[in-house]
Amino acid sequence: QVQLVESGGGLVQAGGSLRLSCAASGNIFSINAMGWYRQAPGKQRELVATITWSGTTNYADSVKGRFTISRDNAKNTVYLQMHGLKPEDTAVYYCNAGGLAKTFRLYDSWGQGTQVTVSS
Questions:
Q1: pLDDT tens digits for range 82-117
Q2: Are strands 114-119 and 10-13 parallel, antiparallel or unpaired?
Q3: What DSSP element (H or E) covers 81?
Q4: For residues 31 and 76, is the Cβ–Cβ distance under 8 A?
Q5: What residues contact 53, with CB distance under 8 A and at least 6 apart?
Q6: pLDDT digits (tens, 9 = 90+) for 23-37
Q7: What does the DSSP 8-state code read for residue 105?
Q8: What letters, b where the CB count within 10 A reaches 16 and e where it falls short, cover 45-73?
């Protein structure tokens, strides 16, 4: 099994910044990509940003220019630096990782989620 542990969520005023972290551990042979998704109350989970292990990034249009995803391959960790936060960014943020386990089976794992609340 592959476990993801997120941290860094919290309450911030509009215009503020937060940094989320997600560390992967367990039965990992390789990680192809990691990413952040979010789910606001009453809405479907949506992609925020992803990054491959070679560094290719992808962002939702709503966060481009404000959020930056990065990774530390040695620590199996991905970060999401969020600036210029808006009330509409309020959601539970989930970390996702996909790759190959030591059993040579593919995995697609999710973290437990971390709440980000932006007050106006």
A1: 999 999 999 999 999 999 999 999 999 999 999 999
A2: parallel
A3: strand 77-82
A4: yes
A5: 30, 31, 32, 33, 71, 73
A6: 999 999 999 999 999
A7: -
A8: eeebbbbeeeeeeebeeebeeebbbebee
Instruction: Please return the burial class of 22, using the count of CB atoms within 10 Å of its CB with bins 0-12, 13-18 and 19+.
Output: buried
Residue range 54-74, pLDDT digits in tens:
999 999 999 999 999 999 999
Q: Cα 89 vs. chain centroid, distance in angstroms?
A: 13
Q: How far apart are alpha carbons 56 and 88 in whole angstroms? A: 26
Distance CA 102, CA 57 (A): 25
User: Rounded CA gap, 4 and 29, in Å?
Assistant: 15
Asked if 94 and 45 touch (Cβ cutoff 8 Å), the reply is: yes
